[in-house]
Amino acid sequence: MTQLFDNFHPIVVSLIKITIVFLGLALVVAYVVYAERKILAHLQVRLGPMRVGPHGLLQPIADGLKLLLKEDIIPAGADRWVFWLAPVISVIAAFTAFALIPFGANFTITDVNAGLLFVIGISSLGIFGTILAGWSSNSHYPLLGALRSTAQLVSYEVALGFAIVAALLLAGTLSMKGIVYAQAEMGVWFIFLQPVAFFILFVAAIAETNRNPFDLPEAESELVAGFHTEYSGFRFALFFLAEYTAMVLVSSIAVTLFLGGWLRPFASVRALDFLNFAPVAVFVAAAGWCFWEALRLPAAREWRWQRLLLLVLGAGASGILVGLLIPGSAFPGAAAEDQPTFPVLEAVQGVFWFMTKVFVFLFGFIWFRGTFPRFRFDQLMDLGWRFMIPLGIVNVIFCGAGIVLSQRLGWNFIASLWLGTAATLLVAILLTRGRS
Amino acid sequence: MVPTWHYLLLSAALLTIGILGVLTRRNIIIILMSLELILNAVNINLVAFSRQWGDVSGQVFAIFIITVAAAEAAVGLGILIALFRNRDTVNADEIDLLKW
Amino acid sequence: MLFAQIIFYLLAGVAVVSALLVITRRNPVHSAIYLIITLLSVALIYLQLQAEFLAAVQIILYIGGIMVLFLFVIMLVRLDEALRQEQFNRQWFVAGVAVVVLAVELIGVIYLGRDTALGPEAGPEALKALQPNTERIGEALFQTYMLPFEIASLLLLVAMVGAVLMARRRVE
Questions:
Q1: What is the pLDDT of residues C128-157, one digit of tens each?
Q2: Is C58 domain-assigned?
Q3: Looking at beta carbons, which residues of chain C come within 8 Å of B71?
Q4: What domain range includes position C8?
Q5: How close, in Å, is residue B13 to chain C by CA atoms?
Q6: ipTM for the complex shown
Q7: How many domains does one find in chain C?
């Protein structure tokens, strides 16, 4: 893969990578929406979308087409220009930050020295989309939603910052790739060294993306739809896209910081090297499922399109499978000794694990939505300012203390960090005791 | 490479625009925004000099200035809210209680 | 002209034009949007000056913090009346003349002193002192400028207390 890229001009390579990431993300985001509907449905013992395509697999496309064809309404009295600008800001902010996310060891659009700060900064620009949408709609509910959203995002950004600092203390670098390499070097993901920081990051991420149980800015039962009440058609689709992209983005940040980025689980254990074939297993399972479902469909004529689609999908999965297993000897210039046995598999390995972890994280988001009732606004603020932020500060202090203990006194690194975590948990108990 | 004095010209332009805003506008919110413009002009100078000398101190000064700007914005907007609550205006020249 | 130069003049033009729009718009929200554009182009200029950390700080603190605060306050304040009033005060003509004089003076001084006052530009090897940027700034901030750093944190604390105190509703 890398030799292939080396022959092009750097700008061309960047453009190719940007296109791949953008298209891939659009696809992933569309199917995260589908996955959310499906998973929520199954959590509630329903079936979810089943009509459009086999198991509703074409539902995202149908939804997108529907939104594109709807009339584009701008309310009277709205500030037209700002109204137009707001969803664009949201989408651009959500997508731009992916330029710095390391999807794999060789697959990053760019990696800069202060990378993590840029990711956080760019993603925090998305808040302007919310504020401006709420203000420019010239309507009560959007304005209230925007005010709530701003207060919520500003509050939880502090907690998010402290959670990130804890991981940075361990990594010693702000470069996104450097953070993953630091985890590879230590041989342990940071979640096992800083579980409290991961917890804070997870909660703050839910709050930052306005998801349940912190979805007050668009609380349906109170604010109609919050800041995008007045939006319809294509502009609404942009907000929708931005929201789910932001979900994928915070998941990617969390995966990079705490879950080892593109690293395979137990990357240092040679006995588990068979895990390298997990992508193959996934595509075998996908192809098998498609063919099995195609067989299982009733023989009636009305099912023929669904069957055809399933067969096409199965064939696609099989094709990818074959592509993954192209042996190294099939490539020109394969004489080199260090050529891996399956170069294609090797190349997509990192991206596969990264996306798998991101999906696990996203599943957590959806699970939360299916499980928790919405917070009240004062409860939200109380949790943020009087529990999350103090806990974050204490965690950073004890994490630093643990690192100093291990460096100056030669204590075991992991043990001293766990001592710090235990102390943090003690403080957390004290913090919760004073509350009702 | 862009010569340093071009950065200084940009900084001078932002500075004069900022001063113009502070001196001529009536709306306090926009006056505060013009102040931000002035502080940014200073920052551009500092960072350009930092590159000119190959010394990181200029960037550190710029960070301090951003800190001051944050403090200034917080206090300024706090004053603005208190003022709006008491006098029901956001115009700088209507706040003349201490004038005689 | 080099790619980097084109980028700089583009960014500088955007910054100046949107700065002009900041001080001329009637509606503070539009002003705030243009100020965000100015700040963003300044951040990109920092990036071009090899100050990555500062560019990130500019985006996070200035745009993500201060400007959000501005917009938040604009939404809290009722502006309908102020929008209909005269936007410029009575001394605008005197102020304009004074500012034009200042601008001419500044441009003249910078142009005349462009070669003599500044001294030679640092070469590529001197620029190595700025990289890796975050590490260099960290060292400078926590070693050379430790005391100012602590004073700055004190300043932020005072500002926070002051802002809360002033924005608070009087409890009778």
A1: 777 777 888 888 888 888 999 999 999 999
A2: yes
A3: 155-156, 158-159
A4: 1-83
A5: 7
A6: 0.88
A7: 2
